[in-house]
Write a structure and sequence with these properties.
InterPro entries: Calycin (IPR012674). By secondary structure, the protein is mainly beta. It has one helix at residues 2-13, and strands at 22-28, 31-37, 41-47, 52-57, 60-68, 76-82, 92-99, 102-109, 114-120. The protein contains 1 helix and 9 strands; from the N terminus they run αβββββββββ. β1 (22-28) and β2 (31-37) form a beta hairpin. The N and C termini lie far apart (45 Å).
Length: 123
């Protein structure tokens, strides 16, 4: 079993990796203000216009192009690259859409890895 097993048991007992995250989207015309609250709060602002724009992400700035999917109604697509566009392995494509009473966020990395988050809507 080794130390890894005991470390995992301790982490599970302390509920590490579990928590609450809240996203608030304020949408006016093409402009979006996204506030995310978890252990700390971050704010990101961008326009849905299909044009590359500088967007704050974490501790840095990225180039993000945001548009509505032309094939699937209601799907928001965000293509994100590093600021200088010279690190293609860090580029991601994100798809966000509503499904029933949930917000689904799918992220595909340039290396082929995929992550999906599902957020419950608060009334």
């Amino acid at each position: 079993m080794g130390l890894g097993y005991f470390a995992r048991c301790a982490m599970e007992r302390l509920q590490w990796g579990k928590g609450q995250l809240t996203r608030t989207y304020e949408h006016q015309g093409e402009h979006v203000k996204l506030t995310q609250r978890a252990a700390d709060e971050t704010t990101q602002e961008f326009d849905i216009n299909g044009q590359p724009q500088k967007v704050q992400q974490g501790d840095g700035v990225v180039i993000q192009t945001t548009c509505w999917d032309e094939k699937e109604e209601g799907v928001l697509i965000m293509e994100t690259k590093d600021l200088l566009g010279c690190k293609p392995k860090t580029w991601t494509t994100t798809r966000q859409y509503l499904q029933d009473n949930q917000l689904v966020v799918e992220v595909l990395g340039a290396d082929g890895h995929r992550a999906t988050w599902t957020y419950q809507r608060e009334d």
